[in-house]
Design a protein that fits this description.
Layout (H helix, E strand, L loop, with lengths): L1 E5 L6 H11 L3 E5 L2 H11 L5 E4 L4 E4 L3 H8 L1
Parallel strand pairs: 1-2
Antiparallel strand pairs: 1-3, 3-4
């Protein structure tokens, strides 16, 4: 499952969601807060969107189309 951690002021978060919608990728949206986000942010950075694939145990921050596609495979 793909989880997208967002904030209300994130400019790239809607772009990531729209990209995954167009590609037919299922995802869940979470606020960028709490223990899970904090632990992931230690590894991938505190920027949003923070996108994490729970099956692959891989994540990234930002809007990078090749990396978004890699996470969604």
């Amino acid at each position: 499952m793909i989880i997208i951690y967002t904030t209300p002021t994130c400019a790239y978060c809607p772009m990531v969601k729209k990209f995954y919608d167009l590609k037919g990728v299922a995802y869940k949206v979470e606020e960028a807060e709490g223990t899970e986000y904090t632990e992931l942010a230690k590894e991938y950075g505190t920027h949003v969107p923070l996108i994490y694939n729970t099956k692959k145990k891989l994540g990234m921050t930002g809007y990078n189309i090749p990396k978004l596609l890699e996470l969604a495979k």
